[in-house]
Write a structure and sequence with these properties.
Strands 1, 2, 3, 4, 5, 6 and 7 form a 7-stranded antiparallel β-sheet that branches. By secondary structure, the protein is an alpha+beta fold. It is globular. A hairpin with a 5-residue loop joins strand 2 and strand 3. It is built from 3 helices and 7 strands.
Length: 130
């Protein structure tokens, strides 16, 4: 009886997890980032990254659109810190409102999902040194 109860509870838990995954469909319907959006991200990186010329391994995700029209994209790369050391590859989740970047969250959980589609982002790796 106890084994049966555990199996039923486990099945319900898995079903609840699958039902609550609102992002899988949004990610599946996501589309590649436009050249204009990539240019905004590059401009932002030039202003924010300590050594933009050190960016390596840059990738960009597809753009996902939420039902309310808000969009989001992820970027991941490695770069040097103030001490001149590479900090390791990190991602940033970037919300897009009305076609404009609206902040960002370092290591956003959605960016770490296995179903996120990534493409190389060489435009971000070719920035000049400040």
């Amino acid at each position: 009886m106890q084994k049966r109860l555990v199996l039923i509870a486990g099945s319900l838990l898995l079903a609840a997890c699958a039902a609550s995954d609102n992002y899988a469909e949004l990610i599946a319907r996501s589309t590649p980032a436009s050249a204009a959006l990539k240019a905004q991200i590059v401009a932002g990186a030039e202003a924010l990254i300590y050594d933009p010329s050190s960016i390596r391994g840059a990738e960009i995700s597809n753009v996902a659109t939420l039902p309310d029209g808000l969009q989001g994209v992820c970027v991941r790369a490695d770069s040097k810190n103030v001490e001149g050391r590479y900090i390791g590859r990190h991602s940033i989740g970037i919300p897009i409102r009305d076609g404009k970047i609206d902040g960002g969250t370092l290591d956003h959980a959605i960016c770490n999902r296995e179903d996120v589609h990534w493409q190389p982002f060489p435009e971000l790796e070719n920035l000049p040194k400040k």
